[in-house]
Amino acid sequence: MYKTRATTTFVLPGILFSVTLLLSACAATPENGSAETAASGTSETQAAARESRNALEQRSSAEAEPEIRESAPERYVVKKGDTLWDISAMFLQDPWYWPEIWLVNPEIENPHLIYPGDVLSIHYVDGQPRIMVDGGPRVRPTHRLSPEARVVERDEDISPISTLQSFMFRPQVLDEETLENAPYVLASQDERVIFGPGDRVYVRNAEDTEQYELYHIVRHDGMLIDPDTGEELGVATLPVGEAEIIEPGNVARADIRKGEREAIRGDRLVPYAEEQDRLFDISRAPAGAEGTIISLFDAISQIGQLQAAIINRGERDGIENGQVFAAFTAGREVRDPISDRANDVVTLPEEEVGTVMVFQTFEKVSYVLVTEAERTLREGDKVRAP
Predict the structure, then answer these.
(1) Residue 381: which pLDDT band, with cuts at 50, 70 and 90?
(2) Contacts of 33 (CB under 8 A, 6+ apart)
(3) Domains of the chain: which residue ranges?
(4) 102 contacts 135 by C-beta, under 8 angstroms
(5) Cα–Cα distance, 218 to 267 (Å, whole number)
(6) What is the pTM (predicted TM-score) of this model?
(7) Most confident of 35-44, 103-112, 329-338
(8) In contact, 365 and 294? CB cutoff 8 Å
(9) How far is the C-alpha of 102 from the C-alpha of 49, rounded, in Å?
């Protein structure tokens, strides 16, 4: 028996955890296949394959070759629940090099997807290692996955979606004036101080809104300051939920439709924004690029793997979604217990402790996800091109 479920699928070639969702989706077989549906995407997928091959060839010729692990298997059979990041780490010293070594098999309809049962192996082309899918044409489900929301039929027993998707929240960095002038939650119909989905709330300063207009509910999380220049980079906000204006006015009525955390009095309503395009490849940050972690998302003093932070570099600095940085802990200052000099303080060297990946950019800052961490990261830690 199948049930209909709306799922947002992100096609992120070579990106951490993205394939868990894709593998899970493709392992399910629709009840009624359609040859016409499969045929309709043939030309598009072939074009995508050609484009991917060209991009990879150009990137590989321009940059140093990644290093294959000595322990890399000669053949590996993809299992349900595998992630591309895990598979990449099995073959490569640095998993983010995957797009540079992945060789698209022209027989494969969609070069960005790997399926349970596929056999991956290392081949050498012009003396350089490449990883590709062996074997003949694979059986495909008749529905096609794309980076937009589609309703597809899934077996109820399909495993949970990708871990990465849960971190694809919609952060917003706003200027202080915009946030201060935005409508805000005033109260509810009763005396409660926290509100959630299904609650009717009253909103102040919403005269210019329209009936049934959707808003993001956000909470002020502090001004972001560049530690190097002192420049104000914008106000970070916490995503709270979504609200719909039912009756505009100086004291408007609104219904909370969705909640990521409890709404409280004073939370702001900002215009609903479409999610930033998630169709991006993983890549190294530009040579020489570096920045500083200036804020931790939803954390007090430290974060670890699969948690998010904000760095003081954004679109104006050439930062793009999918770029990977190496993370370094800032060297602590310690007193030398042996030195004869009074107050002899030594700054310890920085230590590389993991990697972070950009997943949401703004003009002056970017949100990054910790993909690997040997130790926790804190505000003030550095990120640099690997």
Answers:
(1) very high
(2) 141, 142
(3) 2-166, 173-271, 285-384
(4) no
(5) 6
(6) 0.67
(7) 329-338
(8) yes
(9) 12
- Identify the three-state secondary structure at position 363: coil
Distance CA 219, CA 184 (A): 10
Q: Name the helix (H) or strand (E) containing 235.
A: strand 232-247
Burial of 33 (0-12, 13-18, 19+ CB in 10 A): middle
Q: Which two tokens stand for residue 1?
A: 């028996």
Of residues 278, 9, 329, the one with CA closest to residue 151: 9
Tell me how far apart the alpha carbons of residues 324 and 327 are, in angstroms, rounded to a whole number. Answer: 10
Q: What tokens were used for 149? A: 């929301």
Question: How many beta carbons lie within 10 A of that of residue 285, not counting itself?
Answer: 25
H or E element at residue 154: strand 149-155
Q: Measure Cα distances from 87 to 83, 123, 248, 322, 343 in Å.
A: 6, 16, 52, 18, 50
Cβ density class 61-87: b for 16+ within 10 Å, e for less: eeeeebebeeebeeebebeeebbbbeb
Residue 55 tokens, joined: 């991009």
Tokens of 266: 């004073």
More confident residue, 9 or 75: 75
CB 136 within 8 Å of CB 107: yes
Q: Residues 155, 347: contact at Cβ < 8 Å?
A: no
**Residue positions counted in the chain:** 386
The pLDDT tens digits of the residues spanning 305-348 come to: 889 999 999 999 999 988 999 999 988 889 998 888 888 999 99
Crossing angle of helices 18-27 and 84-91, rounded to 10° = 110
| Distance (Å, whole) CA 317 – CA 286 | 10
For 155, residues 6+ apart whose C-beta sits below 8 A from its C-beta are: 2, 28
Token readout for 143 is 């529905």
Tokens of 204: 């102040």
β-bridge mates for residue 123, sequence order: 130
pLDDT at position 258, please? 92
Distance in angstroms (rounded) separating the CA atoms of residues 207 and 198 = 22
Q: What's 240's DSSP letter?
A: E
Identity of the residue numbered 372: E
Tell me the one-letter amino acid at 107.
E
Class (C level, CATH) for 285-384: mainly beta
> CA-to-CA distance for 331 and 170, rounded, in angstroms?
33
